[in-house]
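Exercise 3.2. Students should predict the tertiary structure of the chain below and write it as structure tokens, then compare their answer with the key that follows.

Predict this chain's 3D structure.
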Amino acid sequence: MQTPVLRKGVVALLASASLLLTACSSDDGPAAGEGASSPPGATSAPPASASPSADLPPAKGSAEVVKTLTDGLASPWGLAALPGGDLLVSSRDEATITRVDGESGKKTLLGSVPGVAPAGEGGLLGLAVAPTYGADHLIYAYFTTESDNRVARLQYDEEKPAGQQLGAPDTVLRGIPKGAVHNGGRIAFGPDRMLYVGTGETGDTGLAQDKASPSGKILRMTPDGEPVHGNPEADSLVYSYGHRNVQGLAWDSGKRLWASEFGQDTWDELNLIEPGKNYGWPDVEGRKGEEGFVDPVAQWKTSEASPSGIAYAEGSIWMAGLRGERLWRIPLSGKADGEPLAAPQAFLEGKYGRLRTVLAAGGDKLWLVTSNADGRGSAKSGDDRILLLKVR
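Answer key:
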């Protein structure tokens, strides 16, 4: 079980920065977000980097809202699917986890997560269901405390009364620096059944290039929070670095990892993640072609995206936009460098406001979570809600 370290014996607990950036597409500054995970597979090998073998998607796609599953959610952020199709949703500001029936939309409060200290862009953020859930009923959560960001697992006992169904948090990783902005927060189990964690640099830009810090990174660990054999550096959780604020994680049909992140003033990014690579921040924002840094596969003006969660479905990456108030479709070509098949395509522009999280629902279906009632957007009657989409 990891303490505030990235390498065994090296203390990495850093003083939390409350540094606000005056010009940033943060959790919305103009906008913020969270990402979605694809269901865990059965392989224990590191993620593949080979091109997907699935049929290519069409250059032009479609996205249609089938129904509103539920509404009236308070500051929803993380979303995860239980076996059987029901959903778990976290409230960033209320520090609660709620179960939503995948058919009726009925909501059941599991309980509150103790130790969460919501403030700024921090609070109860990403959720993930353990690949061993059938045996242990463990839920993983990323959250902000008074001193740090951390990942903990909680046992869910649905036989107990509503509101009392969560066990005490068992911390698997602590000491991720916190800030008023850029706390990251996306977590997901990959096809290798390992836990991936997206973090932000808290507004302290230098942390993204410091491989001894967990900030501004994608981390890869065992379910117990230990470094994984095959990580770029022995005894280190760091999988990739040079990130500003990772908000979305998803794997395609070739088991390749994709991540979305906020830019500052100019370019938001979708990146194809390779172990050990440097994604540039703060030296590079967007495509620069500079040696030693990986360029994004796709980029957007911050007014058009401020990307949050992502998911893979029907041969494309689907990316929720906060400030952009739209859902982006990026059709994949299967090329090794990740070059899209066609230009990104936008859907639902302005129709449902800020979009926070997107999650694959199987086949041609996606779950999509709005984010209008957390003080950043313009809430309408019924906000916030979970929508079911049919996509192509």
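Discussion points: The chain is about 0% helix and 35% strand. Confidence is low (pLDDT under 50) at residues 3-25, 29-45.
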